[in-house]
What does this fold into?
Amino acid sequence: MPDLHWYPGHMTKAVRQMKEDIKLIDVVIELVDARIPISSRNPDIDSLAANKSRVIVLNKADMADDRATETWVKYFENQGLIAVKLNSKSGNGIKQVKEAIAKAAEAKMARDRARGILNRPVRAIVGGIPNVGKSTFINSFAGKAVTKTGNKPGVTKGKQWIRLNKQVELLDTPGILWPKFEDRRTAEHLAFIGSMRDEIIEKRELAIKFILELETLYEGNLAEYYGFEFYKKNEDEINFSMKILEMIAQRRALIKRGGEADTDKAASLILDDFKNGRLGKITLENVGV
It folds into this structure.
């Protein structure tokens, strides 16, 4: 596999920007992809958001295994974080996110009251790695009725704030954090959901890894979805995966000249179908594994 530590310049700039933004913030909302809740976190956020109230939002929960998501919510709560699940495209879970922010802000509101400060809104920022749905979340969370509060001279120059309600203002800039590749599996998981450039790992190699992982966790999923005869995973993993790709290519008429199955197109298809939730509710990471 090529060197996975790409875009160090962007990463440094992104972290520096988040450091500046977080100084103005009471609550940090971190979005992760519910299908890969650990790989889609950036470890820097723990130090960046130190001493701030935290909310973890397991986004794209509609694409993830419901039981696994519930287990992850409990896992993060056991870490002392407030965690909720969300489908930001449909807005399902937004009410729970608002309640989570209010809960995260309770201590800050109590401190304000003790100092005689009343009605100062809680300020929040949304952070996370690329492709976990930060912009969609902000748009869905804000809705159509809210207005930007504009620049606040001397305090928030150049920052746009969205007043969500009387209690909460949201910084209208997603905090971009580039992923960090702790190991090969993390990199593969990030590539599966589209949080890495395609050329980092070759498509067919990536699809082979995905097939092996999916068939271990959800045996028969691909045969059922694409409509071919079930083919049991065996010890010859590469040949097994290639056979699956060939069967997908044949079922979807992805054929090269001469009648050969186009396994490259099948690889792109299977990865795209997973990325967009067509293969069903799938979680690739389980607590403790």
About this structure: Confidence is low (pLDDT under 50) at residues 150-157. The longest strand covers residues 27-33.
